[in-house]
Recover the amino acids of this structure.
């Protein structure tokens, strides 16, 4: 298990690095995954850049600097990537969460080989996760699971506009617990402004851990900035 996976596993169980304003710099857990993880009073940068390069650009007394535009812009230039949005990172620890029914979920066969344009939620999962599986409901819901950063199991849900407000998002988030290995923590990334999605995941038993921004390949940077 790599260092980032250990930090995530500990956080899923309620154990966090010291809230001392510290900064941990780790190599990428895979060529695909790079980013910044902000926990309470501690930040983890996981990218293939020298630790001293990071520390020169992060004032030691500014806890928000690693998530700020100046540092993220420099990190993108250095790595040749582009920053995604800053998400709230939530987790459902193993063995927790309400019971959920699965009967209404219909699994999509071979989502990676689907013809025509993919649903944006599915397309994003196929680009940034492995072992992607997709389920839909007759009521207008989509549920996607897969392994993402450091091999963690992740879930995303989408509810069509006409079906919102009836608890379907919460039901889908809860159902995901039954669709991944029971001994694994289940993670979700939600945009801070998406209050409806945040409420759905919280109601399904997920708890906030921190904030995260991922760096996507293809930012067009030179990858050599000092």
């Amino acid at each position: 298990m790599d260092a980032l996976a250990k930090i995530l596993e500990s956080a899923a169980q309620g154990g966090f690095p010291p809230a001392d304003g510290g900064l941990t710099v780790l190599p990428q857990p895979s060529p695909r995954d790079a980013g910044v993880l902000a926990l309470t009073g501690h930040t983890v940068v996981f990218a293939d850049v020298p630790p001293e390069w990071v520390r020169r650009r992060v004032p030691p007394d500014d806890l928000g600097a690693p998530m700020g535009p100046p540092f993220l812009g420099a990190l993108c230039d250095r790595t040749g990537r582009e920053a995604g949005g800053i998400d709230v990172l939530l987790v459902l620890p193993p063995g927790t969460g309400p019971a959920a029914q699965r009967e209404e979920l219909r699994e999509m066969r071979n989502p990676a080989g689907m013809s025509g344009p993919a649903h944006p939620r599915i397309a994003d999962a196929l680009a940034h996760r492995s072992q992607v599986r997709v389920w839909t409901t007759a009521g207008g819901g989509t549920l996607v699971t897969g392994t993402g950063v450091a091999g963690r199991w992740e879930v995303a849900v989408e509810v069509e506009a006409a079906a919102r407000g009836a608890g379907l998002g919460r039901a889908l988030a809860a159902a995901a617990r039954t669709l991944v290995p029971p001994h694994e923590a289940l993670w979700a990334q939600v945009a801070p402004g998406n209050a409806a999605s945040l409420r759905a995941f919280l109601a399904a038993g997920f708890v906030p851990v921190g904030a995260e921004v991922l760096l996507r390949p293809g930012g067009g940077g030179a990858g050599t900035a000092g």
